[in-house]
Amino acid sequence: MASPMFFLLLLQSFLVSTSASSTTSLVNQTETLLKWKASLDDQSQSFLSSWVGNNPCNWVGIACDGVGSVTNISLSNFGLKGTLDNLNFLAFPNLIRFDVGNNSLHGAIPSDIVNLSKLTFLNLSSNDNFSGNIPKDIGRLSLLTALDLAWNQLNGSLPVSVGNLSNLSYLGISGNNLSGSLPQEVGMMRSLLVVHLALNSFTGPIPASIGNLSNCRDLYLFGNELSGSIPTDIGRMSSLKQLHLLVNRLNGSIPQEVGMIRYLILLDFSNNALTGMIPKAIENFSHLRHLYLYGNELSGSIPREIGMIQSLLDLQLLGNNLKGVIPTSIGNLTSLATLLLWDNELIGSIPSEIGFLNSLTNLALHDNSFSGPIPASLGNLTSLNNLRLSKNMLSGPIPTSLGNLASLNNLSLSENMLSGPIPASLGNLSSLSILSLYEDMLSGPIPASIGKLTRLTILQLRGNSLSGPIPV
Ligand SMILES: *[C@@H]1O[C@H](CO)[C@@H](O)[C@H](O)[C@H]1NC(C)=O
Ligand SMILES: *[C@@H]1O[C@H](CO)[C@@H](O)[C@H](O)[C@H]1NC(C)=O
Ligand SMILES: *[C@@H]1O[C@H](CO)[C@@H](O)[C@H](O)[C@H]1NC(C)=O
Ligand SMILES: *[C@@H]1O[C@H](CO)[C@@H](O)[C@H](O)[C@H]1NC(C)=O
Ligand SMILES: *[C@@H]1O[C@H](CO)[C@@H](O)[C@H](O)[C@H]1NC(C)=O
Ligand SMILES: *[C@@H]1O[C@H](CO)[C@@H](O)[C@H](O)[C@H]1NC(C)=O
Ligand SMILES: *[C@@H]1O[C@H](CO)[C@@H](O)[C@H](O)[C@H]1NC(C)=O
Ligand SMILES: *[C@@H]1O[C@H](CO)[C@@H](O)[C@H](O)[C@H]1NC(C)=O
Ligand SMILES: *[C@@H]1O[C@H](CO)[C@@H](O)[C@H](O)[C@H]1NC(C)=O
Ligand SMILES: *[C@@H]1O[C@H](CO)[C@@H](O)[C@H](O)[C@H]1NC(C)=O
Ligand SMILES: *[C@@H]1O[C@H](CO)[C@@H](O)[C@H](O)[C@H]1NC(C)=O
Ligand SMILES: *[C@@H]1O[C@H](CO)[C@@H](O)[C@H](O)[C@H]1NC(C)=O
After folding, report:
1. Is residue 252 part of a domain?
2. Could you tell me the distance, in angstroms and rounded to a whole number, from the CA of residue 178 to the centre of ligand 10?
3. If you measure from the C-alpha of residue 118 to the centroid of ligand 2, how many angstroms do you get, rounded to a whole number?
């Protein structure tokens, strides 16, 4: 058995060598930081005026561990101008946090950054601008929980090594110039909660492996050049609340499996090239507030099941090839504030059940083929700002009840076959700035009450059979 003295000696020599190496490393860290400071512009150096002397642990933006080794460099919003070229990351083996978000730094991300094996938080976002590639070995930073490189000018591809970032919960790459396809390894980052890959130039399909991100709450892929169909695996992203796939080149039909994402609050597939029908599985969305499918090539009719999404606030299906009638179940959507169905091929009469949607502020059904009368029940929608029914085949009179829409700003009923007189009640629409009734079949005098509409800037009455003077 070794004597206690032996252990004491061992312990002593351990302490001496540790403190010696940490002293060396502190000198090294001090010199490294001062060298970087000296490489920045004069104003940046003045922001770092506390960076003098030989104890960086007291400097602004720097924190150290118990033995004086730098663990944090936190300099977001400092207005720093320069590059990272003169910052030797190898001097900071214990660095946990490196945050220089929102500065004016530019140039490359030094490849040595991947040697910071203890790093958990890396933020280079919103600079002016980091450029070049994301280091190929970024996946070596295996303890990272947040990686934010957004709003720079990084180019090249997203390295496949990201698949090794199994602790990452926040991935921010939006607003760069990355290209190539999304690696299938994206699906290996199982801890991801928030994924920002928007506004780059990614091409190719959304990898099916994305379905493995079962903890992910927010997925932002908008503003790329992604193509192919939406993978059915997306239905496995059971924690998703926001799904932003807008402004890509996605085609094929919307998979029924999206209906498996029960807690979705926002689904935005607008401005793609999607075809086929709106899936009936939307009936499973019990928390959905925003449904944006506009600017696609969707066909078929609006499913009756839409009436099951009673949480909906905003329904935008405009600019598709939708056919058939508006289902009467729409009357169930009593929280709806925005209903935009314009520029489709919808037919039949406007269901009077729309009159139940008393939260509506914006109702636009123009550029369709609706026929029959304007339902008097629209007069119940007293929160309406916009009522645009132009370019349909609506007939019959303008309901007197529309005079109840006290908040109305824009009333456009032009290019229909509406007949009879202009109701005097429209003179009660004291907020109205646009009254567009041209190319209908209206007759009789223009009511004097129209003269009360002092906010009116556009009054279009041509192409009718109206008589008498224009009131002033
Ligand atoms: C250093 O970073 C760690 C981990 O991100 C954090 O918990 C800690 O609050 C930071 N300390 C300082 C002084 O910034
Ligand atoms: C970015 O930093 C500047 C200071 O350099 C600050 O004025 C600005 O508010 C910051 N922006 C954000 C979004 O935090
Ligand atoms: C600081 O440490 C790094 C990494 O060990 C080394 O490359 C560098 O030469 C050292 N610098 C000084 C001034 O000692
Ligand atoms: C990174 O820094 C920017 C600017 O300070 C900030 O807006 C952003 O939220 C930070 N990212 C993370 C993941 O905290
Ligand atoms: C840094 O990491 C790279 C691999 O990405 C490795 O080749 C290199 O040896 C490492 N450098 C040091 C000093 O550990
Ligand atoms: C950084 O990039 C953005 C986006 O491309 C650009 O608007 C901005 O002018 C750039 N800043 C500098 C200083 O180049
Ligand atoms: C990335 O940008 C740099 C200039 O910052 C350029 O030299 C390089 O060719 C670009 N690479 C790719 C893959 O676009
Ligand atoms: C992930 O790490 C392992 C072990 O370090 C390595 O063998 C593998 O190549 C890495 N994977 C990727 C995609 O970089
Ligand atoms: C990283 O994730 C693994 C599981 O993937 C977990 O065991 C480990 O505790 C995590 N590490 C940290 C620092 O969170
Ligand atoms: C992004 O990269 C493309 C080529 O991949 C290039 O044409 C374009 O100018 C780049 N945009 C910016 C803002 O650097
Ligand atoms: C209206 O909503 C209720 C409750 O979600 C539902 O039971 C009913 O079937 C819906 N009606 C229609 C026509 O969709
Ligand atoms: C509209 O309001 C009237 C009362 O002004 C009411 O009798 C009618 O049921 C309402 N119709 C709808 C569809 O809400």
Report:
1. yes
2. 9
3. 28
Give distance in angstroms: CA of 114 to centre of ligand 5. 8
Domain of 400 in residue numbering reads as 374-472
Residue matched to tokens 């799904």:
243
At 118, the amino acid letter reads: K
Same domain, yes or no, for 44 and 113? yes
Q: Are residues 295 and 217 in the same domain?
A: yes
Query: What angle is formed at CA 147 by the lines to CA 144 and CA 149, rounded to 5 degrees?
Result: 155
pLDDT single digits (tens) 27-80: 889 999 999 999 999 999 999 999 999 999 999 999 999 989 999 999 999 999
Handedness of CA 40, 41, 47, 50 (dihedral sign): positive
Which letter does DSSP use for residue 121 in this model? E
**CA nearest ligand 7 atom 2, residue:** 132
Residues 119, 218, single domain; the answer is yes
Q: Which ligand is nearest to the CA of 77?
A: 2
Q: How does the average pLDDT of the chain come out, rounded?
A: 94
Instruction: Tell me, in angstroms, the distance from the centre of ligand 1 to residue 72's CA.
Output: 6
Last residue of a domain, one of 344, 373, 402: 373
The whole-model pTM stands at 0.90
pLDDT confidence bin for 397, thresholds 50/70/90: very high
Q: Whose CA is nearest to atom 10 of ligand 2?
A: 77
